[in-house]
Amino acid sequence: MNITAAKRWLDPAHWQQRGRTALRVLLSHYVLNGAVCALGLFLISTLIQAMFGHAAAAAAVVGVIVTIPPDMAAPVRGKTSHMAMAPLIGLPLFLAVQLLRPHPVELGLLLVPATFLSFLGMAWGKRGAPVAIAVVFTTIFSMSTPAAVDMNEALLRTTYFALGSAMYVVYSVAANALCNARYRTQLIADLLFTVAALIRTQARRFAPQETDTEAERVKVAEIAAPQESELGELLRRQAALADQLQNTRDVVLESPRTPRRQRLAGMLVTVLEMRDQLVASELDLDQVRTHAGHRSALNDVRQILLQIAAELEQMADAMLTGRTPPSATDHGTRLAALRLEAQADSAGQPDNGPSGLLRGVAYRLIHLNDAVKELAGLARGETMPDLTVVRNNWRLFVSPTDWSWRPFFSLWTWRAPALRHAIRAALAVGVGYTIATLLPWGSHEYWVLLTIVVVLRGSLAQTLERRDARVAGTILGSLLAVGLLAIHPPAFVLLLTVTVAQGVAHGFALRRYLITAVAASILGLVQSHLLFAGSSPTFAFLERVGDTLLGTAIAWVFCYVLPSWERGQLAGLVRRTMTAQARHARMAVGLASLHDIDTQPELAWRLARREAYDSLSALVLATERSLAEPRAVQPPVRLLEHLQAHGYQLLAQLSAAKSMLLLRRDQLRLDEIEAPLAEAASRIEHTLTAEPGSAAASLPPAIANASVPIEALPDPFENDISPWLLRRLSLALDLSGKMRSEADQVLEQIK
């Protein structure tokens, strides 16, 4: 192992790859966003210090720091209201903390309800969470300033806090508008990197299996677990893509009025179609992999997929560096040749048997190849997208920017995760504050509370991840800060350090919290040194580490208080998944899809498709988080994995059926498939949405007759493909029955 690691570290290609990765990080949207935030902090603090002095600048910096969390790459529309929410709520809290600093008991009585009310903002999801954190930061960072001598000083400091916050709101809105064009490019590039990683994972699924002998068949059975692991990794990649897509949609699809914006929006729409093609490429793959005669063809397919992934990365790299992306390689000829190769390798087998399945896989990958060429054309400015599709996506898939009261009214049930997390956080802050005030270094109780707030998450898995990163990051960051302060640098260097640390901490908060923890520790120690000049750096280091260990311990303990175990949320996620799959089936293969292509039902199908992917991804992520929970409260993970796998396969079958209806209508006998389509859509919807324990209905005759060996089906490339469509419907109905059975078992076991 050591020899292998040494060889890797001595390999120039290894360092070249690390260099590319580092450059991608430096050119990413989250690093740019962090740099913009840091620049705003520097400009505002410098301006206020020049106008009003050091004390005013210190208070204004606190206002800037607590306003920064919601400032991310976002649409221009709604940015002002989003940024102003935290300062408006936090301003009276800041003043109240300033007035109560001499009264520790009253201050504690304020902190607990303020934390509770702030964390209720988590009910608004990804949009509300940064605002909730920013409001809590307001109370905590208000404690980090020197105690006010009297009411006038408290009011003056609050005024400078408000000035810093207001100036940063204006700055952030302007900076977001100026960086909007760059953010669009960076988000699309980041999306291409994610898709490339997904394709690499998909390529591993094309490894052939030898099953010519009974012994080899036993071997295939023995490696079933690794195959499930491959599919699990694929599902996690799909979930990561779904999680990333919405923020990209919100920015890239906003007002695509210029040709450049339209091309980027077209690239996003193309990526959405590529996801369907990748899912459909899984169809029949397990059967194809078991035939030794397909080994060469599968190896070719795997190499093509790896080349496509590399080309997507090259395209993204070029976009990040402002270069013209290279033209995409056309793999269509190689994919088309697989049909002849499959016929030659499977001599003696029926031409429309396993070879037909392999040719079907190759045919679906041809669409993926065409999508990559379309991406390259859009990135190079050589083609323009379908503006009708872009406008429809703009209208349908961009998140609303107004603040609705609906999440607030949905909070007030005992099992609501946001309510339980708010209670848990308030209790943890109360206990942490009480202990911190009794410690010899009680002047830094705010660091204990800050650690609790940033470590304590809504799930145990996220809390454990934050706990470890917070401790390691604090130790490393504090050591770096102590080393810097020990050489007594000038004030300008310290101010620059605070600025850079703030930018790094904000930029990596959602990407890699360990880096954020290191930067936050440097920021906290250096800023504390500026506020309380003359303190010993070594003692500050010991205090900081002690406070961090105490805060993480309290957060860890309280994550078991009123816990929101994943099994409590899984029932709703399972029902959401089943409902979304049912609606997608109705929209994908219902009669509307047969008669009204490219009209309003087509848009309804796209919305249903998004919800099917999003609901399945949410189920995958929740199941993954549950693995960190105590065994006694873990849900039936194996059943959930089977449910997810069958949901993924159902999406693949329906995507293939939809592709036939969209792209190969001239090879279908529409009058003969109309009734089976309507019946299949109705049966799948009924099966997936039926009450637990409902028996699955028998297959319709036309579809039941399609459940014949593939050798009896006509050639899918030269004849009518209606039997193949009916086969897809038959397999989809079978999968819906399996999903119903597995969902019933999951719901029964997590009662």
Relevant terms:
751 residues, mainly alpha, 31 helices
Structural summary, described in words:
It contains 31 helices and no strands. With 751 residues, the chain is mainly alpha-helical. The two termini are 47 Å apart.
At a glance:
By secondary structure, this protein is mostly helical. The chain has helices spanning 2-10, 12-26, 29-52, 54-67, 79-100, 104-119, 125-142, 151-178, 180-204, 214-222, 224-252, 259-280, 285-289, 295-321, 332-345, 354-379, 387-397, 406-409, 417-437, 445-455, 460-486, 491-507, 513-531, 537-558, 566-589, 591-595, 600-626, 637-663, 670-689, 701-704, 722-749. The protein contains 31 helices and no strands.
Low-confidence stretches: 211-227
- Given the C-alpha coordinates, what overall shape results? globular
Extended strand count: 0
Largest sheet: none
Overall mean pLDDT stands at: 82
Query: Number of helical runs?
Result: 31
Helix content: over 70%
Estimated radius of gyration:
29 Å
Could you tell me how far the N terminus lies from the C terminus, measured between alpha carbons in angstroms?
A: 47 Å
Q: Which range does the strand content fall in? A: under 5%
Name the quaternary structure: single chain
Q: What structural category arises from helix and sheet content?
A: mainly alpha
Helix-strand blueprint:
Layout: H1 2-10, H2 12-26, H3 29-52, H4 54-67, H5 79-100, H6 104-119, H7 125-142, H8 151-178, H9 180-204, H10 214-222, H11 224-252, H12 259-280, H13 285-289, H14 295-321, H15 332-345, H16 354-379, H17 387-397, H18 406-409, H19 417-437, H20 445-455, H21 460-486, H22 491-507, H23 513-531, H24 537-558, H25 566-589, H26 591-595, H27 600-626, H28 637-663, H29 670-689, H30 701-704, H31 722-749
